[in-house]
Protein: Cytochrome P460 domain-containing protein
Organism: Bradyrhizobium lupini HPC(L)
Amino acid sequence: MPQLKSLFFLATFSAAFIDSISVWQAWAANDRVQFPEGYENGVHYATVNRGGVSKEIFTSPQAIAAAKAGQPLPDGTVIMMEDHRGGALHRYVVMEKRAGWGDAYPESVRAGDWEFREFAPTQSPNLGENGQRCMSCHQSQAGQDFVFTLDRMRNAD
């Protein structure tokens, strides 16, 4: 009987361990997006205001050039959004595009090769957000390289 209990414990532990690895992998991929130091030196191409929320959006000159040329945004593109509420910085949201990153997610969740990550005003990662909520919303923009503000990029100065 002790062997049966040990076998049962081992099977239960193994199943729990495998489940935790699957969850870890889904969250671990989000760790690839790092806070983009110096983003403010890029192109500020949009301000979006909704009620008491103001979003300042930045990207690279290379992304702007690709958008203006009607090309897909290049591998390595980073789009940074500063989210201000009530006049104060509330959070940062970063989306980054890297070849193959979409492969980490099921087709039903994926937004191309983009990953998303939220950061606190201190620039530390918000570990309570895994980016899949952002992905699910951005899926509606598949024809715009999954970017809501692509037209604003095309019209940026």
User: Anything to note?
Assistant: The radius of gyration is 20 Å. The longest strand covers residues 88-97. Residues 52 and 86 are 6 Å apart (CA to CA).
